[in-house]
Amino acid sequence: MKLVFATNNLNKIKEVQSLIPSKIELLSLKDIGCFEDVPETHNTIEGNAKQKAEYIKEHYNYDCFADDTGLEVKALNGEPGVYSARYAGEQRNAEDNTNKLLEQLQNKTDRTAQFKTVIALHLNGSLKTFTGICEGIITTEKHGKKGFGYDPVFKPNDHNNTFAEMDLSIKNNIGHRGKAVKQLVQFLTEKN
């Protein structure tokens, strides 16, 4: 089975590839000749995931899945949420986004947050979604060099390290994207 993962984010591809069974061949947007920006114009994480999957199916006619992920911080009324990648501006710079988040939380005592991933699967003409959530807190400073995005400041509940301090296998086991991908894999395994 061939499935397109509708992303150009090499870090996401690496994370997901390690969770997908070898019988499923994962293709990137580059592999199918998609070099344009896939639209993400919805104001919800689920809406963006569905939009990306539908775009690839409509324009390239591949079975595919797309994800959208957001960091939702309680003290910031769910920000950055759907705008997580562009929180500090259209340049989509992870360092700038993380610095802005830390600034916004400077005088806040409640630092609870959750990462939310929604995967939209477009398969055999139907669309299905899978959601993974990982709850935790935002640290007061960055820790670790692994991972990407907000990983250096997100510490999952019941863990002493941020995502950026964890090996990928641990992050995949407890993290939002890993949880959503496991549901996707279970669904695909049951279908075949």
Explain the overall architecture.
- The protein has 192 residues and is of the alpha/beta class.
- It has one domain (2-191): Maf protein (Alpha-Beta Complex), CATH 3.90.950.10.
- 30% of the residues lie in helices and 24% in strands.
- The chain has helices at residues 10-17, 45-60, 94-104, 168-174, 176-191; strands spanning 2-5, 25-27, 64-73, 80-81, 112-123, 126-138, 154-156.
- Strands 1, 2, 3, 4, 5, 6 and 7 form a seven-stranded mixed β-sheet that branches.
- Helix 4 (168-174) packs across helix 5 (176-191).
- The radius of gyration is 16 Å and the shape is globular.
- It starts with a strand and ends with a helix.
- The model has no long low-confidence stretch (mean pLDDT 94).
Structural class: alpha/beta
Number of distinct helices: 5
Number of strands: 7
- Beta-strand content estimate: 15-25%
Name of the CATH architecture = Alpha-Beta Complex
User: Quick one: overall form?
Assistant: globular
Low-confidence stretches: none
CATH topology descriptor: Maf protein
Mean pLDDT over the residues: 94
Radius of gyration: 16 Å
What is this structure, in a nutshell?
Helices cover 30% and strands 24% of the residues. The chain is α/β, with parallel strands linked by helices and 192 residues long.
